[in-house]
Design brief:
- This protein has a single domain (3-86), classed as Helix Hairpins.
- It is globular and about 55 Å long.
- It has 113 residues and is mainly alpha-helical.
- The two termini are 27 Å apart.
- Helices cover 71% and strands 0% of the residues.
């Protein structure tokens, strides 16, 4: 699955969630939802690394919660990018991949940002 297909799937789930809960997916909502998910990921990380109480969860459960929160953060990033009509692939190429000499040899026309 490529990034656009993944975004399509995530967007479908987000739309269902918003419909079920009467949420208007406006620009502020996307940003606030991303912030919420980053907070939950931070909490899961702190619990997983023993820097917060584990609430009786096993290491396996804590690791699973951290992984799930990472997925939530990525999904929200995809959603906010789509909402603002940002194609992340060329942005990542120009911002990150440009600095990889092997990648730039294979893609000589991409300029850094």
């Amino acid at each position: 699955m490529n990034l656009e297909e993944l975004t399509d799937e995530v967007d479908a789930v987000s739309r269902l969630y918003a419909e079920r809960h009467g949420i208007q997916r406006a620009a502020a909502w996307f940003l606030l939802k991303l912030q919420q998910e980053v907070g939950q990921m931070t909490q899961a990380y702190l619990m997983k690394t023993g820097q917060a109480r584990d609430k009786g969860q096993t290491l396996e459960q804590l690791d699973g919660a951290f992984r799930a929160e990472l997925a939530d953060v990525l999904s929200q990033v995809l959603l906010i990018a789509r909402h603002h009509e940002v194609d992340l692939e060329p942005e990542i190429e120009a911002k990150w991949l440009y600095w990889n000499p092997d990648w730039t040899r294979r893609h000589p026309g991409v300029a850094a940002r």
